[in-house]
Specification:
Elements lengths: L1 E6 L7 E8 L1 E10 L4 E10 L9 E4 L6 E6 L6 E10 L5 E11 L9 E8 L4
Antiparallel strand pairs: 1-6, 2-5, 2-9, 3-4, 3-6, 7-8, 8-9
């Protein structure tokens, strides 16, 4: 089994939305949790068709140290490509963040085996 954990740079009390899917022959399991809440609890999916995607979700970020863990049962390594950054208002103030990861669980380097998209806004702009 290959596993990878990412520290997501969201803050407590931000409004967070997530979605994810897979396009892999391997069984993929996702966990999203912080110091006080588990938002996605080891949800697993095995499908070479990314549609339909598992149900997206939303929550306030309740704790600190938000982590995303991806486990792929029949993989030996996971390679990630991350896009993350700030959401700014027209004055340049940071009003939220995004964190997206694409995972390759084999050797074809198409990075379509797992996709996770997270976005969070401050509850007050």
């Amino acid at each position: 089994m290959a596993s990878k954990t990412f520290t997501v740079p969201f803050n407590q009390n931000q409004l967070m939305f997530w979605s994810w899917t897979t396009q892999a022959a391997n069984n993929v399991c996702i966990t999203l949790k912080d110091s006080s809440t588990t938002y996605i609890n080891n949800m697993c999916r095995q499908s070479t068709n990314p549609l339909p995607a598992p149900t997206p979700g939303a929550s306030l970020v309740n704790g600190t140290s938000l982590n995303l863990t991806i486990n792929v049962l029949n993989a030996t390594t996971l390679i990630s490509s991350i896009a993350s950054g700030n959401i700014n208002d027209p004055s340049g103030n940071v009003i939220g963040e995004y964190f997206n990861v694409a995972i390759e669980d084999g050797s074809d380097e198409d990075f379509n085996d797992v996709w996770v998209s997270l976005v969070a806004w401050n509850t007050q702009g």
